[in-house]
Specification:
single chain, alpha+beta, Aspartate Aminotransferase, domain 1, five-stranded antiparallel β-sheet, 5 strands
Length: 123
């Protein structure tokens, strides 16, 4: 599979984490479409075509893994997990400790609900 080959390009600790985050996303949200964007070196998760359909991105690097949240700045983040200098999009630096966090799960749920609402307005 292309995504598994893509993940092998990263140092082992981050590749393991990337596999875990990916598996968690697919388990929690099986309706999301997973797609590798090779030129951008990200994996996107969408509920519908186009940017409005994007919910999450996995952004690996040689230094770690980030969970990008499309329009994350529009979401409540009482635990202050989101980072980034963007005014619209945000990300969470992933770790084995943060993945099971209820704060992260609440943020992910809010992102999915927001994406559903964005896309229901298309009709």
């Amino acid at each position: 599979m292309l995504i598994d080959q893509f993940i092998q390009n990263y140092p082992e600790p981050f590749a393991v984490l990337l596999h875990e985050v990916r598996a968690d996303l697919l388990r929690r949200y099986p309706a999301l479409k997973e797609e590798l964007d090779s030129p951008s070196k990200i994996i996107s998760y969408s509920i519908a075509p186009g940017m409005k359909g994007v919910v999450f991105t996995l952004i690996p690097s040689q230094k770690g893994v980030k969970l990008g949240i499309y329009r994350g700045r529009d979401l409540p983040d009482p635990a202050g997990l989101m980072e980034g200098s963007g005014r619209v999009h945000a990300y969470v630096k992933m770790s084995h400790e943060i993945l099971p966090s209820p704060h992260l799960q609440q943020l992910m749920e809010a992102a999915v609900v927001a994406a559903i609402q964005r896309n229901s307005s298309r009709n």
